[in-house]
Automatic annotation (TrEMBL):
It is found in: Plastid, Chloroplast stroma. This is Thioredoxin domain-containing protein. InterPro entries: Thioredoxin-like_sf (IPR036249), Thioredoxin_domain (IPR013766). It comes from Arabidopsis lyrata subsp. lyrata. Keywords: Chloroplast, Disulfide bond, Electron transport, Plastid, Redox-active center, Transit peptide, Transport.
Length: 182
């Protein structure tokens, strides 16, 4: 019997049974009759899981079947309710699947999302799928960060480009201190 051990949140939606199963940090999920498991990262926050069961072939689950991490991807339709109407600060990260620097900082953003927990909500918005938001907020480079509090952009909160986890934490802490949330 093989086991999948998750270091972050993982959601598995089986194609055989309708319910969604959620496993939190450091949870071990046992998978019976599986001879090999392969997770291939195809883009930030999107993974492909292949399960092979000996000579019976393999079962592949698309990126919609498995989502890892705590950063929610939103679109134009959820922007108002998730960002503008939030009761806590929201850091919006504008990204694209083809953006190398976006992929580079993805692990740091995931870690910081868990670290800040209830103090800060972090969401990401796909550049290509949300042209109206890109135009409205004049996002010209990726990744691009904007902090919102009480439905408004926090002045001086814009940041563009990939930076280290330590610098990201310094940037976020400075913003939270400036709006008295830390």
């Amino acid at each position: 019997m093989d086991s999948i051990v998750s270091s972050s949140t993982i959601l598995i939606r089986s194609y055989l049974t309708p319910p969604v199963r959620s496993c939190s940090s450091a949870t071990s999920v046992s998978v019976k009759s599986v001879s090999s498991v392969q997770v291939t990262s195809v883009a930030a926050n999107r993974h492909l899981l292949s399960l092979s069961s000996g000579g019976r072939g393999s079962k592949k689950f698309s990126s919609s079947a498995i989502r890892c991490g705590g950063i929610k991807e939103i679109g134009e339709s959820e922007f108002s309710s998730t960002v503008l109407e939030s009761d806590r600060p929201v850091l919006v990260e504008f990204v694209a699947t083809w953006c190398g620097p976006c992929k580079l900082i993805y692990p740091a953003m995931e870690a910081l999302s868990q670290e800040y927990g209830d103090k800060l909500t972090i969401v990401k918005i796909d550049h290509d799928a949300n042209p109206k938001l890109i135009a409205d907020f004049k996002v010209y480079g990726l990744p691009h960060f904007i902090l919102f509090k009480d439905g408004k952009e926090v002045p001086g909160s814009r940041r563009e480009g990939a930076i280290t986890k330590a610098k990201l934490k310094e940037y976020i802490d400075g913003l939270l201190n400036s709006i008295s949330v830390a």
